[in-house]
Design goal:
With 199 residues, this protein is an alpha+beta fold. It contains five helices and seven strands. The longest helix has 22 residues. It is elongated.
């Protein structure tokens, strides 16, 4: 019993297991990966300064452009042909802007503390731009916002005519007629029509 082996159990010598990949093949793969990484770095050159794309580094190109001054000789020899008068459009004379005068408001005479009447100082006329009147306050406010985006002041005035309520969009007031006309031209460039009104 002592020297016998049990049934079903076989004696096998313990052999070391063979690795799936040989050592020399693993080393070869590691060396190839390191070499490919080094080649990629050499081609990419992240340490090199970035050159502008539009800059031409070719010496041949620079030599050709620096020595080509023939146009200085050719320009004085060329003949200029005048344009016929029929081809020139007639100059458009700028028409004076239409200025609408608001109805005159009656000025009140100031009565002093002692009861004597003082003459009222005539008010200097001011100019406004009347843009448009809307029955809807939201439309008027949207137009007011467009005028403000053009850099001009704008207000919405509520008025009632008959049984209809109107929201009038105005810009201003402006101290002079010239300032009002300049503001009107600014709005015209944005596609907004307006009328200069003198008050």
């Amino acid at each position: 019993m002592f020297g016998k082996t049990q049934r079903g159990v076989s004696e096998r010598p313990n052999k070391p297991k063979q690795p799936l990949i040989p050592k020399w093949l693993g080393m070869l793969v590691v060396i190839l990966i390191v070499l490919s990484f080094a080649v990629a770095l050499m081609l990419w050159k992240p340490w090199a300064p970035v050159q502008p794309k539009n800059e031409v580094t070719s010496e041949h190109y620079q030599e050709d452009t620096n020595k080509d001054y023939r146009f200085y000789d050719l320009l004085p020899q060329q003949q200029v042909t005048p344009i016929p008068e029929q081809a020139i459009p007639e100059s458009q004379t700028q028409s004076q802007p239409v200025i609408v005068e608001a109805p005159a408001q009656t000025e009140q005479v100031d009565t002093g503390v002692d009861g004597s009447e003082q003459a009222a100082v005539p008010a200097q006329p001011e100019y406004i731009l009347q843009v448009r009147s809307y029955p809807d306050p939201d439309s008027a406010d949207a137009r007011r916002a467009e005028i403000i985006l053009n850099g001009l002041s704008a207000d919405v005035m509520k008025s009632t005519e008959g049984n209809q309520t109107w929201y009038r969009v105005i810009s201003g007031p402006y101290e002079s007629q010239n300032a009002a006309v300049i503001a009107q031209q600014t709005l015209q460039h944005s596609g907004i029509d307006s009328i200069v009104v003198k008050r």
